Prior knowledge:
Layout: E1 11-15, H1 21-28, H2 31-34, H3 45-54, H4 59-62, E2 65-71, E3 76-87, E4 92-99, H5 108-123, E5 128-134, H6 138-146, E6 150-161, E7 164-174
Parallel strand pairs: 4-5
Antiparallel strand pairs: 1-2, 2-3, 3-4, 5-7, 6-7
Helix pairs in contact: 1-3
Amino acid sequence: xxxxxxxxxxxxxxxxxxxxxxxLYQMENDPSLWSISNFTVPYSKATLRAYIENSMNDMFADxxxxxxICELSHDKPVGVxxxxxxxxxxxxxxxxxxxxxxxxxxxxxAEALDLLCDYVFTFLHFxxxxxxxxxDNTASLNLLHRAGFxxxxxxxxxxxxxxxxxxxxxxxxxxxx
Length: 177
């Protein structure tokens, strides 16, 4: 049975499986992605394996949700989409998306974001999602704006990359009641 919340025309979203270990190892250990995350050291396969094995795949238990973005025609992973900092009492969480470099610009992230927003707003009844995006990351800002996120703040000198501090845009999408 296919869950309609998680299947689009280009991608499907699915839970992380043990077979995703190598893919996650590649994504998490790509230093070019470290500047947009809070991670600054490589992950071991043992650490990632433990994460996969110990995740309840229950956002209420884990306080986060990580889904694989799989290209639909070949069912191969092309990225991940996350909700972190989940606060059930307040009906909110923070969105994160990461795609392999060679898979960007194909519409996968936009569709994955739309699918996840539909799921959390319609099925889980979230009130809002938020995102923190580097002010010079125009591709991600455009993606979120097209998905209905609006700018709600600018955090000056918020994010350090190397020895330089960068501004961060705070965005949110609020469910229409």
